[in-house]
Amino acid sequence: MSKEPDRLFAQPLSQVPDFAFNEDVVRVFPDMIKRSVPGYPTIVENLGVLAAQFAQPNSVLYDLGASLGAVTQALRRHVRTDGCRVIAVDNSAAMVERCREYLNGQDSMFQELLPVEVVEGDILALQFQPASVVALNFTLQFIAPDERLALLSRIRQSLLPGGALILSEKLRFNDPEEHALLTDLHIAFKRANGYSELEIAQKRSAIENVMKPDSLEEHRERLLAAGFSKVVPWFQCLNFASLIALP
Ligand SMILES: C[S@@+](CC[C@H](N)C(=O)[O-])C[C@H]1O[C@@H](n2cnc3c(N)ncnc32)[C@H](O)[C@@H]1O
Ligand SMILES: O=C(O)C(=O)C[C@]1(C(=O)O)C=C[C@@H](O)C=C1
């Protein structure tokens, strides 16, 4: 994967444009997400481990909002269930192009990996096939809030018995003190990873119109409303968490 450091917000911008998953972001994305999301490498690797427990023979594993395919690669490292295949979906052409290159690289280094199809498309318009694992790794927060329940309901309807949705998100907190503390600690995490105050502030204004985090309670209630029977948080680091939702 690209080792190019994320300096996208290092210079003062007269106007900070809304954040988009464009070519500039694609070039620095592995560095950006690792330095911005506490626990990201742990979440991605263990998503593969968890998926292996839920994968059902001859079924589809979805990686929705796959970006450069980090989750798809983890699924292919860990899932050994017969007849499974991965469908990775993203609506950013720049992400999809690079994702395909990285997956070709994985294919050339390892044998007997699960087959994978990378689809450039909107997950809101996707016709879901029967699936045993659906990963939404930091993607739902970029979907318009009023579209989230319908998407989760369609995912729930596509899930096979024994399968699971794994949902990772940035959280907000209803308690103002808890929200302020974890936001400050997240800023400290970014600072410790080499981001300047300017980079942190400009990135925040770039994402505030396009990324709308929910609270853990909102996630739980919406997942239950979508028809999931059980919601189990399995990871939290500061204001980032990952949940298992069972059909
Ligand atoms: C934060 S990134 C996800 C990171 C990735 N899952 C990982 O673990 O490395 C969010 C991704 O969701 C994609 N995305 C946002 N809205 C989408 C939509 N409606 N349909 C498909 N992809 C979408 C973006 O293009 C972006 O690549
Ligand atoms: O909350 C932030 O400040 C972030 O940078 C988070 C986040 C994310 O959660 O996806 C936002 C955009 C980038 O894709 C990388 C990280």
Characterization of this structure:
With about 250 residues, this protein is an alpha/beta fold. The protein is built from eight helices and seven strands; from the N terminus they run ααβαβαββαβαααββ. It has a domain of about 170 residues: Vaccinia Virus protein VP39 (Rossmann fold), CATH 3.40.50.150. Helices cover about 40% and strands about 20% of the residues. A seven-stranded mixed beta sheet has the order 3-2-1-4-5-7-6, with helices on both faces. Helix 2 crosses helix 3. The longest helix has 17 residues. The mean pLDDT is about 95. The chain binds S-adenosylmethionine and prephenic acid. The site of prephenic acid (PRE) has 9 residues, from helix 1 and helix 7.
Concise account of the structure shown:
The chain is an alpha/beta fold. It is built from 8 helices and 7 strands, in the order ααβαβαββαβαααββ.
**The CATH C-level class name of the domain at 40-172 and 211-246:** Alpha Beta
User: Which regions are unreliable across 5 or more consecutive residues at pLDDT < 50?
Assistant: none
Shape: globular
Rg on CA atoms, Å = 18 Å
Task: List key phrases describing it.
247 residues; alpha/beta; Rossmann fold; seven-stranded mixed β-sheet; 8 helices; 20% strand; binds S-adenosylmethionine; binds prephenic acid; EC 2.1.3.-; CmoA
